[in-house]
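Bug report

Summary: structure tokens for Exostosin-2 differ between web form and batch submission.
Environment: batch mode, default settings.
Steps: 1) Submit the sequence below via batch. 2) Compare with the web form result.

Sequence submitted:
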Amino acid sequence: MYASGKYSSRGPALIPRMKTKHRIYYIALFSVVLLGLIATGMFQFWPHSIESSAEWTLEKGSVHDAPLIRLPVSSPLPERGDLSCRMHTCFDVYRCGYNPKNKIKVYIYPLQRFVDEFGVPISSTGLSREYNDLLSAISDSDFYTDDVTRACLFIPSIDVLNQNSIRIRETAQALALLPRWDKGMNHLLFNMLPGGPPDYNTALDVPRDRALLAGGGFSTWTYRQGYDVSIPVYSPLSADVVLPERQPGPRRYFILSSQTAIHREYRAELERLKEENGEALLLLDKCSNLSQGAASARKRCYKGQVYDYPQILQESSFCVVLRGARLGQAALSDVLQAGCVPVILADSYILPFSEVLDWKRASVVIPEEKLSEMYTILKSIPHRQVEEMQRQARWFWEAYFNSMKAIGLTTLQIINDRIYPYAARTYEQWNNPPVVHLFKTTFLDNGECSHVYYYEGSCGVCYGSELFVGGI
């Protein structure tokens, strides 16, 4: 009945038994590999939603309580900014890695007081209110991390917003001493007032190696396209003066010039335009009959008549923004807040956030040599287009100019879009104001019309003339 003795009851069982051993071995090996992949994946891709609650704020310790760092005279100096730097040559994108939120992580260095070997501070003003506001806003944002090992971008707590208030060499030495400096790689500096007399360079004069620069007043010669970020010069009036939004349309004046200390050649040309066009152009200057101070800074005069500034800007369709000693002017922010279309005459000026903002929709840029033709050029713009530009100008201010927080977070978003281009904001998201969409209309018993709106992702009810967002 059985074919052979080698197929005894013990013999045939050897083959299945060997297969079982191999099967167990391969299963164990596969399990180890699978567990390793799962552990690696969890470490790499697990959403780091649990952040430390620590935030960077001045209130955590006054400037006087910050550690004192004495700079030896032999401290190393960074190299001057490398004009050839681009994101693929001077920025380590691999530090940013992958995260499910597509957000770069930003680390702010702890506050320190730097002095030279004689005990003299590197800054005459210390930490300005504006820079403290900017750092505090970043520390409150989704970009912030207090874990230096997770950071993609590093921001020094050294205030270089105003070059006039710092010592160039000593500030550069302080930067080089930062523990993660690494020749400025992945570091970001904010500067709004670059250069100094007599040349007034259009970029920060502090040697900074490969650091990115968010600068106010870049020219085409100093701006590293796709690397630096051109930012506005913040106007302190944004926090002190509230200008209610005004409906677009014709204004009392067609063109208004309100800047003081304009170069005499430009002033002479504006006066000639005033003579030719009369009341259509209002040419203001500082008030010589008022005592100097904060109050006089908010006044402008024309032939003895005093006007409130920046309120007077709302009375004009177009407002002139001329270059001064520096290309970037705080007047641009004042003009946008007023909903006045800026007429920019500053050759080679890189407009703020021009990497993402379409300035043709909110301003008129005229070469300086064509100042004499300004009135004719502006008269050729259709009324409907002027109204759209007025509306866009005001929205640019509300979204990107109205605070140090808005300026700082817009800068980080632009850098974020470069690093995560697949999740970047679109042209429309950057440039189109939020739209209130009417999708339902009902009539009340008293005859008034009640509208239901969808506004920026929220529902709201307009009863009479008032809009109640979230009211339904």
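Above is the batch result. After comparison, the two runs are identical; trailing whitespace caused the diff. The radius of gyration is 30 Å. The first strand starts at residue 68 and ends at 71.
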